[in-house]
Design brief:
Elements: E1 15-20, E2 26-30, E3 35-42, E4 45-53, E5 61-72, H1 84-96
Parallel strand pairs: 4-5
Antiparallel strand pairs: 1-2, 1-5, 2-3, 3-4
């Protein structure tokens, strides 16, 4: 992993990143909003949630992308929060990239 977060200008649309944020550990970059879509669990429910790149500024910029991963959202899957395909794909990525021990 790189020591310096990936600047928003270098983030690739629909690409998966390992991120540091308030509620997510993996996220798909959504260039249109400057946000990352990932799985959030709250009160026993898991759902797709968007947090925004640090470079978006206060008060909403809460994500520091740490590493670009090899995965890209498949062409047939929408990058909208309410998309079942996105949720399923993120669940598979969550299993493929487990939380690191460090």
């Amino acid at each position: 992993m790189r020591a310096i977060p990936v600047p928003k200008a270098e983030c690739k649309d629909r690409r998966l990143y390992r991120i540091q944020s308030r509620n997510l550990r993996l996220g798909v970059f959504k260039a249109a909003s400057g946000g990352f879509l990932g799985l959030r669990t709250k009160f026993g429910s898991t759902y797709v949630f968007e947090e925004f790149h640090w470079d978006n500024g206060e008060p909403y910029g809460t994500v520091l992308p740490q590493e670009e991963l090899l995965e890209e959202l498949p062409a047939g899957v929408s990058n909208e929060e309410d998309c079942d395909g996105l949720r399923s794909w993120l669940q598979r990525m969550d299993a493929r990239y487990p939380r690191s021990a460090g």
